[in-house]
Amino acid sequence: MTTYVIKGARILGGQKKDLLIRDGVVAEIGTGLSAAGAQVVDADGLVALPGLVDLHTHLREPGREDAETVETGSRSAALGGYTAVCAMANTSPVADTAGVVEQVWRLGREAGLVDVQPIGAVTVGLAGEQLAELGAMADSAARVRIFSDDGNCVADPRLMRRALEYVKAFDGVVAQHAEEPRLTSGAQMHEGEVAARLGMTGWPAVAEESIIARDVLLAEHVGARLHVCHVSTAGSVEILRWAKGRGIRVTAEVTPHHLLLTDERATSYDPVFKVNPPLRTATDVAALRAALVEGVIDIVATDHAPHAVEDKECEWAYARPGMLGLETALSIVLDVVGDELGWDGIAERMSRTPARIAGLTGHGLEPAAGAPANLTLVDPAARWTVDPAGLASRSRNTPYAAMTLPGRVVATFLHGEPTVLDGKAVK
Amino acid sequence: MIRHLLSAADLDAGTATMVLDTAAEMAALADREVKKLPTLRGRTVVNLFYEDSTRTRISFEAAAKRLSADVINFSAKGSSVSKGESLKDTALTLQAMGADAVVIRHSASGAPHRLANWIDGTVVNAGDGTHEHPTQALLDAYTMRSRLGRLAGLNVAIVGDVLHSRVARSNVLLLHTLGAKVTLIAPPTLLPVGVDAWPAETSYHLDSVLPDADVVMMLRVQRERMDQAYFPSAREYSRRYGLDVARMRRLPEHAIVMHPGPMNRGMEITPEVADSPRSTIVEQVANGVSVRMAVLYLLLGGKA
Amino acid sequence: MSYPSSGRQSGSDASQRTGSPGTPAFRAPGEPATRPDGTVPAPVSSAPVAVSAPSPSETDVSPEGPAKTILSAADIARVVDRIAHQILEKTSGAADTILLGVPTRGVPLAHRLAERIHTFEGVTVPVGALDVTLYRDDLRLRGARALGRTELPPGGIDGRRVILIDDVLFSGRTVRAALDALGDLGRPSVVQLAVLVDRGHRELPIRADYVGKNIPTALAENVRVALTETDGVDEVRLLGGVR
């Protein structure tokens, strides 16, 4: 393995230091470091963060390799500063058996650009009727700890209760896509003034909030861990605050797009802005930002959802919901709450806490002597303009096209080897 | 110069009035022996209908033909559309065929907006999902103006399934632009969340609105809505929101009754009301051709 | 820290679709941009229906260059009298004759002629209006515009002598459009043409039967007819183009 000396990096924005990286770990931190045969990485003025961890990524493989593969999604992640991603289970076939989660896990290792941690489905085929073999997935080589039917809600309260209880046996967590399906039949966008004007069927906030309220009570009742995916409404924040106040073991994520964009975007009828849960109002966006800063919402997760061109270049109603997120997430977070969070706050919400929720012990650790060398170097002064064609994802459905954003990932190290250097993927 | 007519909101008061004035001139054509004008000779108008709507398609077709345009009817049935061709691919085909205008009817809200991004020609929205139907609103305004002599200051009651009605959305926007006062009357389940932002009043009670109404526009209510629990039964709906003779008698002497068609006789309107002299339902159909001629002339007539 | 969704992309899709704000959706009649009558790009007014009114404050030097009054109010009155006499002469006392004015200024001219004919001979000549906009061959060059009124006298035009009345005869294209429009409205026995001013430069084999005044003009010049009914003043002026 090559030895690297990273020169002049500011760990979590602190004083400039050199980092000596050898054998996959940070061997030494100091000033004026050098080592024979080491490759020097000039990081003068760059901020070093623990490698980012995404708790919510759709890699589409197996099944929709035309939209994304484990490899292209991994490359996207590395370019976005990530060293680990959790791959959602709604593939084809669904990741509801040990066989499928091991396949995804193996593909991730072969790509070698980030650690790919598969998420297992809660129910067979995401159908919401019968528990998948959760224990088999937990015991597999992929060591699954997060279970989610994301894309679908585990709507049946009895089934949800059983899932929450069952995964306690291996310290698992159920990540719920909170959407009461009976309230969102045919829904296209946030139910409110814009939907009324555009003549689109509404996705009411209460469809999310009622499920979160039910689930935190279920989690309390059975003493289980619950994770809430992509929280999108001000009302959900209130419920989470209440639940945390009661000591319920609930964690929650918010996506970059829900921190930035509102339902007014739908006025263009361009399905690049169609996502589930939908973009909400400015009031919701403000509440989500405040909740992330306050800690009521624990983490940022991308819900990176690549879609093939034909699934987006069509009528809004026929388009599939979802947006790209991996390559833009850090920049969006810096833009909207960077000042309030600071570098430590960003590391907490985009690396340490998601790693803890996912049980990824090698990630989310400060760059310190002896720690695994999973880290990313960010140029905080750089600004860049999003060009969909320039993204490493196989898909183009970014809602941020032509926006100029702050912060640029210059280098990412995974287990002591660079996956990104000079802002480019090394492989 | 507006290139497309996608929403009634595309029309300011001056433009909308110009459409109505032009339609009045076009209407005179119906009394002539030669019901044809050379105005759009050499232009191609495509009727792209993804939903069955014979009356709207025929109305646009008659309008285009009276202006001497070449008309191509492209309906979802028996075409490549039913074989799964995307709207974008269809748009590129029409573009290659040299369509100067595409009149589109589609079950998805916003489909005309998408189409307008993909072709150079003019796009006319002939009804998109539960969004808008701007030419219907224009012909309704034209009918009101013909019958009552003005639009400014009129009290217009729009009754029924506002939530799913493209006719209601376009009428609210256009009538507001032209100075009429609109009241939407429906059970609370059939008014959209967010309706407060519309330039219209709302009411749950038809009877209280009728004595001051100059125009009552009844919207079609589909019986299937019952299965989605929007209201308990067809009978309860007609009892509370249907227009029968007793209710019609509460209207002022001059008030008119409108319906965009097709009617559910016995549901939102009784046959006696639909066939009464107050009813403008047949006139609306005739006026539709004149208004669509005006729209096609103003959008296509002057383009270089 | 920026506010959600505001101002990150320049202009919404909606505003791009519906044209820039403040742009009139359709051109109004007589708007300057619609002026060139098939003879682009010369900024010449040849379209009688589209000649715009001089404003009362306008001096002898208009933005289009020096202006010269060709016919005063009294001249116009004399010319109308003369045409009325000629019509009576050539039509055996205006029997079975109707006057159709071409909007805008042809219509008041037709009414004046009818009034003079009635004064001279006590004959009532039916007057109507014939809008030719939808028959023009230059719509694509000019932009769609509001229509004038078409009103035929009771009894229509079949078998009768129709005299078309217009203010200025220039390229002849307006008259060509009027003849097409007449053909769709019926079958007159005879069609004649009366104009206040003939300024030459015909592009079609058309001539007037009654001419108030022949005015030789350069193509770049512009003839402006103002009538009390439409413009508050009776006057014909020649506006110098680029000299």
UniProtKB/TrEMBL annotation, chain A:
Binding annotation for Zn(2+) 2: 150, 177, 230
Catalytic activity: (S)-dihydroorotate + H2O = N-carbamoyl-L-aspartate + H(+)
GO molecular function annotations of the record: dihydroorotase activity
Entry-linked PROSITE patterns: DIHYDROOROTASE_2
A Pfam short name: DHOase
Segments forming domain Dihydroorotase catalytic: 47-234
Gene name for this UniProt entry: pyrC
Protein name according to UniProt: Dihydroorotase
Record EC number: 3.5.2.3
Keywords: Hydrolase, Metal-binding, Pyrimidine biosynthesis, Zinc
Known role: Catalyzes the reversible cyclization of carbamoyl aspartate to dihydroorotate.
Cofactor note: Binds 2 Zn(2+) ions per subunit.
Residues the record lists as binding Zn(2+) 1: 56, 58, 150, 303
UniProtKB/TrEMBL annotation, chain B:
Family: Belongs to the aspartate/ornithine carbamoyltransferase superfamily. ATCase family.
Catalytic reaction equation(s): carbamoyl phosphate + L-aspartate = N-carbamoyl-L-aspartate + phosphate + H(+)
Function statement: Catalyzes the condensation of carbamoyl phosphate and aspartate to form carbamoyl aspartate and inorganic phosphate, the committed step in the de novo pyrimidine nucleotide biosynthesis pathway.
Sites where the protein binds carbamoyl phosphate: 55-56, 105, 133, 136, 261-262
Keyword annotations of the record: Pyrimidine biosynthesis, Transferase
Subunit structure comment from the entry: Heterododecamer (2C3:3R2) of six catalytic PyrB chains organized as two trimers (C3), and six regulatory PyrI chains organized as three dimers (R2).
This enzyme's EC code(s): 2.1.3.2
Name this polypeptide is given: Aspartate carbamoyltransferase
Entry binding sites for L-aspartate: 83, 166, 220
Matching SUPFAM superfamilies: Aspartate/ornithine carbamoyltransferase (SSF53671)
Alphabetical list of PROSITE patterns matching this protein: CARBAMOYLTRANSFERASE
Record InterPro entries: Asp/Orn_carbamoyltranf_P-bd, Asp/Orn_carbamoylTrfase, Asp/Orn_carbamoylTrfase_sf, Asp_carbamoyltransf, Asp_carbamoyltransf_Asp/Orn-bd
GO molecular function annotation: aspartate carbamoyltransferase activity
Pathway assignment: Pyrimidine metabolism; UMP biosynthesis via de novo pathway; (S)-dihydroorotate from bicarbonate: step 2/3
Domain of life: Bacteria
Species the sequence originates in: Planosporangium thailandense
Gene encoding the protein: pyrB
Residue span(s) of domain Aspartate/ornithine carbamoyltransferase carbamoyl-P binding: 3-145
Domain called Aspartate/ornithine carbamoyltransferase Asp/Orn-binding: residue spans: 153-299
